[in-house]
Amino acid sequence: MATAVEQKGAGVELLTGSEVMAHICRLADVDVLTAYPIRPYDTVMQFVSKMIANGDFDADYIPAESEHGQFEVVKHASACGARVFTGSSGVGWLYAMEPLAVTAGLRLPMVALVGCRALDDPGAFGTEHNDALLVRDLGWMINFPSTAQEVVELGLMSYRVAEDPRVFLPCAIAMDGAFLTHSQATVTVPSQEQVNEFLPPYDRGDLLLHPDNPITIAPQANEDWLMEVRRQSSEAGKNAYTVMKEAYKDFSRIFGEDVNPFLEEYMTEDADVVLVGMGTLALPVKVAIREMRKAGKKVGMVRLKWVRPFPTDELRASLSRFKAVGVIDRD
């Protein structure tokens, strides 16, 4: 369980998950954002555009002609040393699959919001995770926040880990459509000073695409080099696990919040049975567990925060304590 303490310099606001992510972009001083409208992710771009128009946020905001073009723009901006943000939902995320598939192999730390939405047809607005999970085995990191407050943690952590030179991989923040993208909650927004201390500038070093640094990005390669690219991406994913544990120590120190990097447990101390899932199902599951507890049933919950890197050891150690495990999927 998270242990919250006083956060100096922070303010409390009533925000949706999408609006929290917009604040994270502002606090992280994102350089380039691209937008193309598709529900439910697009609310974050509406809030970002309002902050830019009001003079609260200085960034290049580029409306794209499609989801494909949207992701191509930030992919190349990232190669040139810009901190970037974009996103999509459902079939829009699928339409961008060409740039999504190559971004990890190019080692570009794009951060993207997936407003998780059922794949059409018909035009469904229900939440499922099939869109976000499409990049599960392509080298992307993926996290699933459960609350608007947790978007602060996972949003900042996405930039911190993705942009670490030991990693340099893209990261998807998979936010359940409507349940989190549009639902308001009171959120403690960190101060600029806290974020500056936690999040170093994005520095590509010798990998920067610039006329003064003549390098080749995305050359044509045959099978042997393709497998080497995949191996390097795999190693970077393993590095992310170590980098993440380091980053969470800094997060706890700076923001005054002691959290488990990979898992949340609820009422598991004496549980015989636990339900496992990810995302916003945590709230109704917690309500159901409390009702089952009233009936004398020893039930708890274990929630995954990160799917990539997958916390194999932590999850195995946690689930080995219980007699039975039930998995709830939204895919």
For the largest sheet, list the strands in their spatial order: 4-3-5-6-8-7-14
Biggest sheet record = 7 strands, mixed
Mean pLDDT: 93
Please state the structural category. alpha/beta
Query: Roughly what percent helix?
Result: 25-40%
Q: What best-fitting shape do the alpha-carbon axes yield? A: globular
**Approximately how much beta-strand content do the residues carry?**
15-25%
Tell me the span between the first and last alpha carbons. Answer: 26 Å
CATH class of the largest domain: Alpha Beta
CATH topology of the largest domain: Rossmann fold
Q: How many individual β-strands?
A: 15
Q: Can you tell me the residue ranges where pLDDT is under 50 for at least 5 consecutive residues?
A: 1-9
What's the SSE pattern? Answer: EEHEHEHEHHEHEHEEHHEEEHEEHE
Please identify which CATH superfamily of the largest domain we are dealing with. Answer: Thiamin diphosphate (ThDP)-binding fold, Pyr/PP domains
Number of domains: 2
Query: What's the CATH architecture name of the largest domain?
Result: 3-Layer(aba) Sandwich
**Rg to the nearest angstrom?**
20 Å
Please report the number of helical segments.
11
SSE topology:
Blueprint (H helix, E strand, L loop, with lengths): L2 E2 L6 E6 H11 L4 E4 L7 H11 L6 E4 L3 H13 L4 E5 L1 H6 L1 H7 L7 E6 L13 H4 L7 E3 L4 H15 L8 E6 L7 E6 L2 H7 L24 H33 L1 E2 L4 E4 L6 E6 L3 H13 L4 E6 L1 E3 L3 H8 L4 E4 L4
Parallel strand pairs: 3-4, 3-5, 5-6, 6-8, 7-8, 12-13, 12-15
Antiparallel strand pairs: 1-10, 2-9, 7-14, 11-13
Helix pairs in contact: 1-2, 1-7, 3-5, 7-9
